[in-house]
Amino acid sequence: MMAAAVPAASLMERLPAVRGRLTPNAPIGPLTWFRVGGPAEVLFRPADAADLADFLAATPMDVAVTVIGVGSNLLVRDGGIPGVTIRLGRGFAEIVTEGETLRAGAGALDLNVALTAAGAGIAGLEFLSGVPGTIGGGLRMNAGAYGSEIKDMLVEAEAVDRRGKTHRAPVAAMGLSYRHSGAPDDWIFTGALLHGRRDEPAAIATRMGQIKAAREAAQPIRARTGGSTFANPPGDQAWRLIDAAGCRGLRRGGAAVSEKHTNFLINTGEATAADIEGLGEEVRRRVHAQFGVVLDWEIRRIGRHPAEVAGA
Ligand SMILES: Cc1cc2nc3c(=O)[nH]c(=O)nc-3n(C[C@H](O)[C@H](O)[C@H](O)COP(=O)(O)OP(=O)(O)OC[C@H]3O[C@@H](n4cnc5c(N)ncnc54)[C@H](O)[C@@H]3O)c2cc1C
């Protein structure tokens, strides 16, 4: 994404009035699971979809715009995020069920969507209880677990583009594949219509309990982490290759490869984003050297390295 080479104060002056909140120089690390990274030049929390669309339509096109969910798949670099960072809050968290369908705002937590669906007797969305993100992040990443993914349950998504134009995309137009969406990069998802099938709430709750137990046994879910670091290469599993390359427990500064699940990187307390990214690159290098397999980052790395800021 292009950096806007203007100081935060003057960027604020170039932005339109909003009903939500604009904050210059806003810490972003605390809004992410890794708890690292520099500030957003400006953080925008829109009041609702109309506020977001009006803001995008009136913001000069040279201003970089980045959207984040709850940062469960995100590494924010130490130099911070240039331009405007958008975080969808309460105005995007509504969840409404109707028959076997469920409409959710993009800021709704996947867990709350799963719980609401279970309560309404809608089966098929249980897997979302194991994904600690939002519906917006889930649409961008085609989040999935335990054999299901967003792609299987989506009817249509709603989005606003960089110019403030609203779009409605049926699932077939979303280009969803393993941890990937082919929707245009500038789309900010604002909501989704999902479908399931009828089942007893108690049976759905039992399956969600099984997912919770499986996750607690297999993943470091209480750690400062970004979830799976690398996508599984075709026909193999990233964790297995990382383990076989001798990277279990490998450290760099305050970052470590999880002992519990080797495809998870952990901030052990004092890590910088550079420690975490550097450790990930070291893991990639070792896996490539040993097995000739190039691991692709699943975690989204955003923002600038400090050297880029100094040179800006
Ligand atoms: C402990 C742990 C376990 C996890 N387990 C799983 C798992 O089982 N399966 C799985 O799929 N993932 C898993 N993840 C990863 C993560 O939870 C998912 O990718 C989730 O969908 C990310 O949602 P988010 O709201 O946190 O997005 P963020 O991490 O904030 O952002 C991720 C990406 O989505 C984009 N994005 C966010 N919101 C929007 C929006 N409204 N419109 C457009 N783009 C948007 C961001 O720009 C970024 O590129 C796990 C993560 C952790 C920490």
Structure report:
With 312 residues, this protein is α+β, with helices and mostly antiparallel strands. It has 3 domains: 8-90, Uridine Diphospho-n-acetylenolpyruvylglucosamine Reductase, domain 2 (2-Layer Sandwich), CATH 3.30.43.10; 92-204, Uridine Diphospho-n-acetylenolpyruvylglucosamine Reductase, domain 3 (2-Layer Sandwich); 230-296, Alpha-Beta Complex (Uridine Diphospho-n-acetylenolpyruvylglucosamine Reductase, domain 1). The chain is 28% helix and 26% strand. It has helices at 8-13, 49-58, 110-119, 135-141, 150-153, 201-218, 238-244, 273-291, 306-310, and strands spanning 21-26, 40-45, 65-68, 74-76, 81-87, 95-98, 101-105, 122-123, 144-145, 148-149, 154-160, 166-170, 188-195, 197-198, 224-228, 251-252, 255-257, 264-267, 300-302. The radius of gyration is 20 Å and the shape is globular. The model has no long low-confidence stretch (mean pLDDT 95). Bound molecules: flavin-adenine dinucleotide. Residues 33, 67-74, 88, 106, 130-134, 136-138, 140-141, 143-145, 188-189, 219, 221, 225-227, 300 line the site of flavin-adenine dinucleotide.
